[in-house]
Amino acid sequence: MDKEYKFCPECGNKVEKEAKFCDACGYNFVMKESRPSGTKQLVSQLMNKLNKKMIMAAFGVVIVLAAGFYFLRGNFAIAGEYKSLDSVAYGSSTSIEISKKGMATIVESSEYDDARYEVGLPLVYVDQTETYTIDTDKKVALSITGPLADLGADDIEEIDQFVAMLGLTRETEGENMVLSGEIDFALLKMADIGGSLASIADEFVIVDKGNDQLDISGETFIKVVE
């Protein structure tokens, strides 16, 4: 059987087809033969890797956006300001404002004086029961405002003890005293803050009744439409 030959591209020497090197000039056939498609193959591999990274990045962005949309629009789709129907009849006004991030700020004020109770409660959505309740692992924002004219020396002393117990700050704004700060939920349960807010520590459940109405621990709230 006749042998097959090839020619060295460098010096033209005739060598056997299976030869790896040219015996005349030392030319490396193996390395040279792998080069023509090497660059194209490398570019193709890099493009494939880049495309995969871009696809994964795009997929990750979609997941983040979807999760953010669910958090803002799904878990706390009840965001808005609501007024209590029940409290008006008793000369007081109770409202709740729920942010898209799940912070529920409850405000109770009197129609007869400047007394005002305010508490900010972080909410958590309970999927199994389709309700919203307090996230007890987070801090509760508390603010209480009352007219100084109604307070005597004994009242101030008692308030200072209250402030020290909860770690609040006491300030004066005009003719009012303002107590504010962030406290643990466990301390909120211990505190006697008066008014309808006193029941918050016992049970706080929000149920979306639809038609811009919420049931908050048995009390009906209507959404305020601007």
Short description:
It holds the Pfam family Zn_Ribbon_1. The protein is built from 4 helices and 13 strands. The chain is an alpha+beta fold.
Q: Give the rounded overall mean pLDDT.
A: 70
Overall, the morphology is elongated
Helical stretch count?
4
Which spans have pLDDT < 50 for at least 5 consecutive residues?
33-74, 194-199
Oligomer: single chain
* Amino-to-carboxy terminus distance: 98 Å
Q: Spell the H/E element sequence.
A: EEHHEEEEEEHEEHEEE
Q: Got a strand count?
A: 13
Domain module tally? 2
Largest β sheet strand count, sense and barrel closure: 8 strands, antiparallel, barrel
Helicity level: 25-40%
Radius of gyration: 37 Å
Q: Into which percentage range does the β-strand content fall?
A: 25-35%
Main β-sheet, spatial strand arrangement = 3-4-5-6-7-11-12-13
**How would you classify the helix and strand content by structural class?**
alpha+beta
Overview of the structural elements:
With about 230 residues, this protein is α+β, with helices and mostly antiparallel strands. It folds into two domains: about 25-75; about 80-225, no CATH class. The protein is about 30% helix and about 35% strand. The chain contains four helices and 13 strands. The protein has helices at about 30-35, 40-75, 155-165, 185-190, and strands at about 5, 15, 80-85, 90-100, 105-110, 115-125, 130-135, 140-145, 170-175, 175-185, 205-210, 215, 220-225. An eight-stranded antiparallel β-barrel has the order 3-4-5-6-7-11-12-13. The longest helix has about 40 residues, at about 40-75. The radius of gyration is 37 Å and the shape is elongated. The protein starts with a strand and ends with a strand. The relative contact order is 0.11. The model is unreliable at about 35-75 and about 195-200 (pLDDT under 50). It holds the Pfam family Zn_Ribbon_1. This is Zinc-ribbon domain-containing protein. Keywords: Membrane, Transmembrane, Transmembrane helix. It comes from Marinilactibacillus psychrotolerans.
